[in-house]
Each structure stands twice: as structure tokens, then as C-alpha cells.
Amino acid sequence: MHKFMDWLQNTLMPPMAKIGNNKYLVSVRNGLVLTLPAIISGSVFLIIGNIPIKAWTNFIAPYMNMIGVAVNGSFGIISLLAVIGIGYELSKALEIDPLSGAGLSTMAFVISSFNDKYKLDTDNFASSGLFTAIITAFIAVLIFNFFIKRNIVIKLPAGVPAAVSNSFVALFPGFVILVLFWFVRMPLHIDINQVVQTIFHPLLFAMNTLPGILVYTLLVSLLWVCGIHGDMTLEGIADPIFLQFLAANGTALAHHQPLPYVTAAGFSSLFVNVGGTGATITLVALMLFSKSKTYRDLGKVAFPSALFEINEPVIFGFPIVMNAVTMIPFIVVPLILATLSYLFISIGWISAPVAMVPWTMPPIIGPLMATGWDWRAAVWSAIELLIAGSAYYPFFKVAEKQMLASEKSTPEDGVETVADEN
After folding, report:
1. How far apart are CA 256 and CA 221, in angstroms?
2. Quick one: 280 and 334 in the same domain?
3. Terminal alpha carbon distance of the chain
4. Beta carbons of 164 and 156 less than 8 angstroms apart
5. Shared-domain flag, residues 77 and 146
6. Taking the CA atoms of the chain, what radius of gyration do you get in angstroms?
7. pLDDT at position 147, please?
8. Which of 222, 210, 220 shows the shortest CA–CA distance to 263?
9. Tens digits of per-residue pLDDT, 211-220?
10. Which of 85, 166, 182, 253 reaches 20 to 30 Å from 44, CA-CA?
11. Is residue 70 part of a domain?
12. pLDDT of the residue at 13
């Protein structure tokens, strides 16, 4: 176990910490936040239009085309919103004018979206263009930054308002960006979006497979065990993929087509990490009925937040971080739930996520809404809690025994959490 701990601290943590702090991945993570209001708003209409009650279905049927406008108008622009957000955030990280960076990134993305018939292909504004949005934002902002840092810009007198001055500063680099993307797309006839999709296809394919999602799940858990926010560290890489999957599923549902992706956004947060990463809400429930006063008190504090998928109190308070006892179920339980959930969705026993719900949505309710009111998802979520609780129970009893011994030996000073020393 000591060798495993050393591997976590010395081999896994340093590169993962660098990934989590990488300015480009942080820009993607923060920039994609701009897409969430549209996705969540569109999801509301999607959920309303698919309530599985016959009376409601009959009532809403004449209005489904109007509901489709809301769904397509929100899911259909997530890549456009993404390029704006990422261009803005990366420009801010590079300490250049973020508004100009966002505008130039958007221009590059729009040019990339013209087809060979010189028509704007707005399909690229939807989920299929998400990685193109990321790449074009990176290229446009880096070109902009190149000219700014080398002072190859048009400067106006100091008395000119900043908004006007910034627009002229961006004029020359903007023209270069325009010519570059126009030349690649039109004279060279290179379909930029198609090239990007071809490059990233293996990654997209892998993340919708069972081995791919298991590797992702394992990395998230291992990072948390090291005390690093695993979800946030990998968001810059994973979020574009899972959001693209979700938007495609939502669009497919709106058009009454089969759902193409299993691991869409919501799969990990609602089906794998039930009640927080590691399904720790079940550990908190065990603490509420513990013989140890320390664990009972911690359970009372942690349960309200665990109910809404927030589990930092138990991860750092129990603790799970670098604890050789509880890290075992913390790592293994999500792998079990991911495997079973993936298989059940693949064979059609449960619907895949089609709508974005807040990640703080409680277990059972969250899966029910995210799958478009699939009651089987709610039942499975309840069963997952039982599976997770059963897996945590023997390890919790070991930790409880240690804690009771500690409480007995130091009653006058209070007690501290005990991590296995082996």
C-alpha cells in the first residue's frame, strides 16, 4: 500500500496538477460555462415536451413544433457560444483584450463553417462543431496575441476611449486571421470542421466506450484520493466531449431518433458518482447510524450537502484522501456503477441522458429528469445506492472500529479522524 501511495503522490499527481492548471484547458473549461444557460434552458423544453403521461402527451402534441424551435435554438448554437467563451477566456489568460479575442475567434469559426457552395453551414454551430470551435479559438487568439506582444498593431492617441482603441488594435491581426481562415477554407477548399472531426474522432469514439469511461472514472477517483479535485482537473478535456454527446442526444430525441451516445453529460455525475464522487452519500448515511460519536456528528454535517452531490466534507473530513481503508471502495464503487450503467443503457434497459440538469440534483430525481422522465433510471439510481452502501459497509466498519478505539483512549481531548497507517 505504501508503494501505491508513493505512486499516487510522486507519479500521478504532478502531471495531473499541471493539466488542471494549464491555461488552455482552463480556458476551455471556463469558456464552456457560456454554453450552460442555453443547454439547460433547452433541456427544460425537452423535458416538458417528453413527460410520459398520456393526457399531457395529447395536450402538448400540437405544440411540439414550437417546442422544437426552443430546443434547436439552444442546442443548435452551443459551438457558437463555446468559441465566444473560449476566445474570451484565453485572451484574458494571455492578458490581451478579451472582447476582441472573442470577436476574432467567432469570425474564424464562422468562416470555417462555410461549405463548398459558399453557403454558411449552421449545422456546425451545434454539437458537431464543438472541437472546431476550440481549435479556431486557440489559433485566432494566439495570432492576436502574437501581434499584440510584438506591438504590430495600429495605435491611437492616449485620449481615445479604450473601446475604440482596442478595436483598432485588433484591426490588423483581425485582417490576418480573416485572410488565413478564408484562404484555407476557400482557395484551398479544406473543410476545417471535417478535418478537426477526423482528428478527434478516435477520442470521441473512445469516450463513448466502456473502457474509455472506466479510464476516465478511475482517473477522477485517483485524483480525489490525492486531494486534487478530479472532476475539475479533467473538465477541460472531458467537458467538450460529454457536452457534444448530450447535445446530440437531445437533438436526436427532439427528432424522434435513436440516442447515439451512452456517456453524454450527466452519465458520470448521475449514474456513476451517485451522491458525489465515489457515491459517498452512502458512506455518509452509514455515518449517521455509527456507534462513533465523531462519525455521527460528521454525518449530520455532511448529509445535507451530500444530498446535493457535494461531498468535500466527507472526502476531507472522514477522510478519504490518502486513507488506505476507504480509498478502496471510493475507487472501486464508481467503476462498478459505471460498468453496470453503461451496459444497461447500451441494451436499452435505461435511457441515456438527453437533458442537462444541475449537477447538484439529488440521486433518483436527477437521473429521472436527465433521461427525459425514464422511471427505470430512477429505480436504477435507488439500486445503485444500495450497491454502493453494501460495498462501503465492511470498510466503514473497519474505520469505525479504529475510531471507537481512538475515542476510548482520548475521551478528554476529543478525537481525530484515523487513517490506516499500513
Report:
1. 36
2. yes
3. 7
4. yes
5. yes
6. 25
7. 94
8. 210
9. 999 999 999 9
10. 85
11. yes
12. 66
